[in-house]
Structures are given as C-alpha cells and as structure tokens.
Write a structure and sequence with these properties.
The structure is a single chain. By secondary structure, the protein is mainly alpha-helical. The chain folds into 2 domains: 77 residues, DNA polymerase, domain 1 (Orthogonal Bundle), CATH 1.10.150; 170 residues, Intergrase catalytic core (hpI Integrase, Chain A, Orthogonal Bundle), CATH 1.10.443. The protein contains 11 helices and 3 strands; from the N terminus they run ααααααβββααααα. A 3-stranded antiparallel β-sheet has the order 1-2-3, with no helix packed on it. Strand 2 and strand 3 form a beta hairpin. Helix 1 packs across helix 3, helix 5 packs antiparallel against helix 7 and helix 5 packs across helix 9. The longest helix is centred in the N-terminal third of the chain and has 20 residues. The radius of gyration is 22 Å and the shape is elongated. The chain starts with 8 loop residues before the first helix and ends in a 7-residue tail after the last helix.
Length: 286
C-alpha cells in the first residue's frame, strides 16, 4: 500500500486495522483463511456491520479487504478468485452533507478543557489543532517539537495528503495551549513528537487514540452529532470558514486539500450563498 500504491500513513494504518479485525473474526468463528468462501465474507459484513457500519464505512472496508485478499492470494494463502467476489456499495459523489457540529458546541468543548488538570491541558492543545487549523488526526499525532517555531510564531504541518509541509501562523491561544502542555505536562522522553501518552511507557500518542479523546469530550457534554471523532472538528472548522465567506479555494488551502473537488462538498452548508442563488432573478437571462 505504501510502496506500490502510494497510500498515506493514515490510510495504511486504517486498512491494516480493517484486515486485522477480519482476521480476528475468522479466528473467532473457527474458519480458515485458505478455505474461505464468498458466503463467509457476506456473513462477516452481515454479522459485524449490519447495525454499526454506514454505507461509506462498508465501502471502505470492502476495498481494504479486497486489496488484502489479493495480497494473501499472491502469497498462496487464500483462493485467488475470492477478492473479486467482494462487492462494495455504490457511493454517489457528493451524496451526503458534511457532519459538522455547531461552532458553539466546539467552543463548549474547548471551554471544558480550560482547567489545570494534566489531561485537560493536553486535550486542549490537541482539540485546538483539530478545530482551529482543521488538521487530520494523523497530522496531529505526527506533529514534532521542531515544527513549532516559537520565535517566528509559526507552526509547520506535514500534510498527509499533499505530502508537503504547510506553514500556519501560530495563534496566541494555540501557542499558549501548546506551551502549557509542553512545559508543564509533557513527560521527559527522547521522542520528538509533541503529544505523548499520559501513562508509561512514554510513547507518542497514536492517531487512533485521538478518536477516543475527542469522542469522550462529545459524550461528556451530551453533544448529539452524527460523528464525534477528530474529523467532526475538521468539518466544523470548514463550516466556520464557509460562514465567514471564504472562497472554496481558500478553505481547501487551509484544510490541505489537493484539489477543489474535495472542498466543494462544503458549498452545501453555505446557507447564505444558497439563499442568494435561490433568490436570484433569472428573468432577464431567459
């Protein structure tokens, strides 16, 4: 996935997670990878995902398993015909709305972390990077100490999709949150990543762990949204930029999109712009 298909680290991590869950299910059900049949894969999706996975999740998992089964077939550990039997649901381009929480809810989450508790200090810095800069969870997890230029008041982020570094101004509130975490809470460790686990062994926090951090904050405040992970805060950042009337190009640049195709979904949450289009008088043009 990394060397031949050029996938980002986060995609490789996520697809390996899908393959790991599939292998665990095979073991739990007493099946054997070499003897798997298409009906077994159907049973996996029905038993594991019927009540939990959305169509988008099913499509992503199906793509990961199809790739994984092609790999196992090349290794001689599964039927070479099996991968082609994995079917994913049709996903229509731009079929859904972004699932952004209200910015007032984001502010509630940030306010709740304004304490002197070590966990709140760490989480506040993480949440600000997600909500204000719209970073992906993998970009936050991989942020290094040397990417924060305190004297120049900038922060450099390695964008996972663009595969290049992007420079942002280091806002005073974010600088204060980061400095408080690094100076007061962050354990002494040889790792260069900014965010470290709270319990020993002192290792860099993982992208997967960031989901648990953000999800817990939504649940604690009773905020009801379709999704409660780091990407929800990224969507909230984009929706706020739309409300402030930034162009799609400017929003895409801020979010680190490779093309405006990824950004145009946010046009559907531009209610003011949609009202202007609806009220436009086409009489003189017809």
């Amino acid at each position: 996935m990394r060397d031949e298909r050029g996938f980002s680290h986060l995609t490789v991590e996520r697809w390996c997670g899908h393959a790991r869950m599939f292998l665990q299910w095979i073991e739990q059900t007493g099946l054997d990878l070499s003897a798997l049949r298409p009906s077994d894969i159907d049973r996996y999706f029905i038993s594991e995902g019927a009540a939990r996975w959305s169509r988008v999740s099913v499509a992503s998992i199906a793509a990961a398993l199809r790739s994984f089964l092609r790999f196992t077939a090349a290794q001689g550990t599964s039927d070479p015909r099996l991968a082609d039997t994995v079917r994913r649901p049709r996903i229509y381009e731009q079929e859904s709305l972004p699932y952004a929480p209200n910015w007032s809810d984001v502010q509630r989450i940030l306010t709740a972390t304004a304490t002197d508790k070590p966990k709140d200090i760490r989480d506040r810095a993480i949440l600000m990077l997600l909500a204000i800069y719209g970073l992906r969870r993998g970009e936050v997890a991989s942020l290094r100490l040397d990417q924060i230029d305190w004297s120049g008041r900038v922060i450099q982020v390695s964008r996972s999709k663009r595969r290049q570094t992007q420079t942002y101004p280091l806002l005073p509130s974010v600088a204060e949150a980061l400095a408080c975490y690094i100076d007061v809470v962050r354990p002494q460790t040889p790792y260069v990543e900014v965010f470290i686990r709270q319990q020993a062994p002192w290792r860099p926090i993982t992208a997967a762990a960031l989901y648990d951090i953000v999800n817990a904050r939504f649940i604690a405040l009773g905020i009801q949204v379709a999704h409660r992970g780091p990407h929800a805060l990224r969507h909230a950042c984009a929706a706020r930029l739309v409300a402030e009337r930034l162009t799609l190009k400017e929003i895409g640049d801020h979010l680190g999109h490779r093309s405006t195709m990824s950004t145009r979904v946010y046009a559907k949450v531009d209610l003011a712009g949609l009202r202007e289009a609806a009220a436009f008088n086409f009489g003189d043009l017809l």
